[in-house]
Structure formats: C-alpha cells, structure tokens
Amino acid sequence: MAQKQAVVIFVTTSSSAEAGKIGRVLVEEKLAACANIVPLVRSIYRWQGKICDESEALMVLKTRSGQIQKIIKRVRSLHSYTVPEIIVLPISAGSKDYLRWIFEVTR
Predict the structure, then answer these.
(1) Which of 80, 58, 71, 77 is nearest to 12 (CA)?
(2) Which class would CATH give 6-105?
(3) Averaged in consecutive runs of 10 residues, what is the pLDDT profile of the chain (107 residues)?
(4) What's the 3-state SS for the chain?
(5) Is the pTM of the predicted complex or chain greater than 0.85?
(6) Taking every pair of C-alpha atoms in the chain, what is the biggest distance, in angstroms?
(7) Phi, psi (deg, nearest 5) at residue 93
(8) β-pair partners for 6
(9) Pairing between β-strand 50-64 and β-strand 6-13 as defined by DSSP bridges
C-alpha cells in the first residue's frame, strides 16, 4: 500500500462509549482525520470454540496509510478486547477535497 494513500479502518468495540473514547484519542493525536461511530451493530462470530451473538459499536476511521501501524498499536493499548477487530481498506477514489483534508489534518 502506498504511503500517500488514504485508507478506511474498521474497529468494533464493546460500546459507543468505548468507540468514542478511542476515536477521540486518535483524532486528538492526529492519527486519524475522522472517527465515525455506528452505535449499534450486531456481530455473530466464533470465539474460543463458541458462537457469539453480541451487540457492538463500529468505528470507521479515515486516515493516511502511513498511520496504520501507529493506529493499530494505539487501538490495542486503549481497547477492552484481547483481539480487537482492526481492518484496513484502501480508498481507491473519492472527493479530492475530502481526501486532501484527510492528509491536511493527520501527521
């Protein structure tokens, strides 16, 4: 992934409050330009041999590709889960003004 590429990072959390706490830190530290929080998602997954069906919050981060490893490390340090979901997707196209803004407000 190119260093100058914008990316979206998905992170699920135990609650909207936890997502808000993590998102605020990432934006304050200029690691992410924006953290959108979807307050209620239903997650069905296998964990430790059991099928789980839980309510979670989804955080959608927008940032530059050069921040991925820092964000992963920071999310792990703040997150309540042993193995938090942190998934990175490249942004292949979008509003040039919006993409430029992502690079302006992150370091």
Answers:
(1) 58
(2) alpha beta
(3) 84 98 98 97 96 98 97 98 96 95 95
(4) CCCCCEEEEEEEECCHHHHHHHHHHHHHCCCCCEEEEEEEEEEEEEECCEEEEEEEEEEEEEEEHHHHHHHHHHHHHHCCCCCCCEEEEECCCCCHHHHHHHHHHCC
(5) yes
(6) 46
(7) -160, 160
(8) 64
(9) antiparallel
Encoded tokens for 49: 């041999």
Where in the chain are the domains? 6-105
Token pair for residue 36?
């959108």
Cβ neighbours of 26 (radius 10 Å): 26
Asked if 8 and 52 touch (Cβ cutoff 8 Å), the reply is no
